[in-house]
Design brief:
The chain is mainly β. The protein has strands at 23-26, 33-41, 49-57, 68-71, 78-83, 86-91, 94-100, 107-113, 116-121. The protein is built from no helices and 9 strands.
Length: 122
């Protein structure tokens, strides 16, 4: 993620912290149900900590796709599916495109901002 900062122990959300500061944007073409549930995770081997997980679910005909973006609420934007395995996240400052290959392990990310386009592939 461009500009992503590591989550320190101090600001990591825990069981008593609020998740209201995270906005979710889902692709609008399909409605999935979601719930926040308790789950244990291990930040290092031999250590278990409580956490919360947002689970999405739906009964759909396969194959099916689902994509979600987690962003701060001030990152207003729209998230849509533009084609098979292709998504667009538009914000006032620019747009972000995500392309997943239908076979193989290729992923392409393209950012179009005021500083110009940038593209990354994996």
């Amino acid at each position: 993620m461009v500009g992503a900062k590591p989550c320190s122990e101090k600001n990591r959300p825990g069981p008593s912290r609020s998740y209201s500061s995270i906005a979710r944007r889902t692709s609008a073409w399909l409605t999935w149900s979601h719930a926040i549930e308790r789950f244990d995770w291990s930040p290092v081997y031999g250590r278990k900590e409580p956490a919360f997980v947002r689970r999405f679910s739906a009964e759909v005909t396969l194959p099916a796709e689902f994509a979600v973006i987690l962003a701060p609420p001030e990152a207003a934007g729209t998230f849509t599916q533009t084609g098979p395995s292709a998504y667009l996240y538009k914000q006032p400052q620019g747009s972000h495109e995500f392309f997943f290959a239908t076979s193989g392990a290729c992923f392409i990310y393209r950012a179009n901002t005021s500083t110009g386009p940038q593209e990354f592939s994996i």
